[in-house]
């Protein structure tokens, strides 16, 4: 009998694959995920945890009542042998989807993986546990907040792009191209908070460069890779944030300059398709107006927003 590979060697080989795609052991990915998920990929479950996230968005990105930024990306895979067009996406390659909610520090709070590339945002988000928890009010979010200068209480909410529905708990941009100045400022303030999820995906792909290739494995194994790299990403954010996230976008508000992150020089992951659904509730639209008015008010404005929203 030959000497078996030690756990440490198997771990080293797996990490090398995730960084370079030069070798692979799926069992180690599964074991790593099982060992790490409770500590490094556990969604918040109490009011206190959500309030801490919202406080960090307010302190770091000047956006109030935000519990996370939401987006989805296509992970390129080889064509599965048992499928025809199920995994073929709108960008004309085969993929599985990663849907993620991210906090103010680029940490993944919630991930949903494995939807086929053909799936659209409406189906992926509608079927995920996060959507159901929002609808059933089981996330234990804090109650709506009274904000000075705002006539209605603001719900704690997720920031997202046009791929997602507008609700009281999900705020996204206005749909029109020709926007007045208050709406342009709102878009800037929203995108500033939402940029954390773009950067989280970019950092993930920059550090685990397996995502910049077409992964030549069965889609079930790809799901294992996505889950374990999200855990490892959060581990690095928690333990070596300054070095690990150093490829992120940098916005210098003092000098009113924006420097794209190094990750943007890589082949980027493709986002999910935008939605044409426009049946948002009147209260959801009104909350977006209230936020817009707050961001241009004396209480809610920031000194650099007039310049930055015009770039």
Automatic annotation (TrEMBL):
One GO CC annotation, please? nucleus
Per its UniProt record, what InterPro entries does this chain match?
A: HARBI1-like, HARBI1_dom
Taxonomic superkingdom: Eukaryota
Q: Does the keyword Metal-binding apply?
A: yes
Whether Nuclease counts among this entry's keywords is: yes
> Where is it localised?
Nucleus
Q: What is its main location?
A: nucleus
* UniProt-listed Pfam families: DDE_Tnp_4
An example of a GO molecular function for this protein is:
metal ion binding
Q: Which residues form a coiled coil?
A: none
**UniProt KW keywords:** Hydrolase, Metal-binding, Nuclease, Nucleus
For activity, the cofactor(s) needed are:
a divalent metal cation
What family does the entry list?
Belongs to the HARBI1 family.
Q: What is this protein called?
A: Uncharacterized protein
């Amino acid at each position: 009998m030959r000497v078996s590979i030690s756990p440490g060697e198997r771990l080293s080989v797996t990490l090398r694959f995730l960084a370079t795609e030069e070798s692979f052991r799926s069992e180690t990915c599964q074991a790593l995920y099982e060992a790490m998920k409770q500590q490094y990929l556990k969604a918040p479950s109490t009011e206190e945890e959500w309030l801490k996230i919202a406080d960090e968005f307010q302190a770091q990105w000047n956006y109030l009542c935000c519990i996370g930024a939401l987006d989805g990306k296509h992970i390129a895979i080889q064509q599965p042998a048992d499928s025809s067009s199920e995994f073929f996406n709108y960008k004309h390659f085969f993929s599985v989807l990663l849907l993620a909610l991210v906090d103010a520090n680029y940490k993944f709070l919630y991930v949903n993986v494995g939807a086929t590339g053909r799936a659209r945002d409406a189906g992926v988000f509608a079927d995920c546990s996060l959507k159901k928890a929002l609808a059933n009010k089981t996330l234990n979010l804090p109650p709506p907040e009274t904000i000075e200068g705002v006539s209605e209480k603001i719900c704690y909410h997720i920031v997202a792009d046009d791929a997602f529905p507008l609700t009281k708990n999900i705020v996204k941009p206005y749909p029109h191209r020709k926007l007045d100045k208050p709406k342009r400022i709102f878009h800037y303030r929203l995108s500033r908070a939402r940029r954390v999820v773009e950067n989280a995906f970019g950092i993930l792909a920059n550090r685990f460069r397996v995502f910049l290739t077409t992964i030549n494995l069965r889609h079930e194994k790809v799901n294992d890779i996505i889950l374990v790299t999200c855990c490892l990403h959060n581990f690095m954010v928690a333990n070596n944030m300054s070095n690990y996230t150093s490829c992120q976008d940098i916005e210098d508000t003092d000098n009113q300059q924006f420097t794209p992150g190094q990750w943007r020089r890589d082949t980027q992951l493709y986002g999910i398709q935008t939605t044409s659904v426009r049946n948002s509730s009147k209260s959801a639209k009104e909350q977006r107006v209230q936020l817009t008015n707050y961001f241009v008010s004396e209480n809610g404005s920031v000194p650099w927003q007039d310049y930055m929203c015009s770039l």
